[in-house]
Amino acid sequence: MNVKYSILLVVSLIILSFLSYQLSLETINSNVSLPKPALNYNLHRDIIYKNTPENIPLKLDIYQPKKSTGKKLPVVIYIHGGAWSMGSKEMITHKFRAYVLNKLLQNQYTVISADFTNINSQNHLDRSLQDIKDVLKWVTNKSEVYNLDTENIGIWGGSSGAHLAMLTAYTQNNNSLQNLPLLHYAIDFYGPTDLNELFRTDAHPVIQKWFKFYYPKTYKTRNKKILELTGFDVEKQKYEAIKPLRKLSPANYVTENTVPTLIFHGNQDDVVDVRQSEHLVEKLQNHKINHQYFVVHNANHTFNNISSDDANDIAQKTVNFIKHYTKRQK
User: Fold this and answer.
1) Backbone torsions φ then ψ of 110, nearest 5 degrees
2) Is the pLDDT of residue 9 over 60?
């Protein structure tokens, strides 16, 4: 009976894990309508920072305080979410993110929100990651034009954007030949940290066949996302897909040199399980990396059911963390 029970338990857990990742943007029903904060900023909109090989212009927006000290301002790069294949730079002004943006502006930060190449069957995650590096390169080249302090830059993202932000920050020691500015911290809102765990690539073949039979649509979506991320068909090329998924997992890059990291995750998140953040926290603790981890109670994915008090608290904690790792000019 114990063996039978164990098998049923394992099957149930894996099925729930598959179902938890719906690979869509803000599909959870919102039951709280946050009042939008009174944003007050100077906006440089739709600045082209590069053209893709297909000659598609990629753009960014720059948010700066209305009243500035006149000194160069520290920079926060925002990377939007959307399952790596959707979303836009304008998301920063929506929902709780507007509270974080507002608090950063009030504290004399420049915030840059950029679009990047969305993944599909032809464009994989290496394209998105290179675009983000090119944003950093653009910041260096245009620092005098927009009064940007390239000695004080950090990166912030939500969901798949947090995954990209962490991956960029955690692998920046490989950027020495690209002359990129150093990122001093990473802000992770409910981001995936281990993609093989997220997609359950280690599930037993029998269990995968069972899941495919009973939940064909979700199974197909999961496989499609792996193909878009890696370029490999996980059904036919399982081990070829696992290898790049491992390389695309931020938790696998944590070392004693990893940047300080701030993490928020809702304990009711049924898109990216909170265990993804717990796994990262364990890695950070083991390597004695400065970090803060906040579990937002009753919050679902994208925090679209939190109150204005929660949004203000999250914004304040985010700014406090960022200020701690910002070296102010005299």
Assistant:
1) -90, 135
2) no
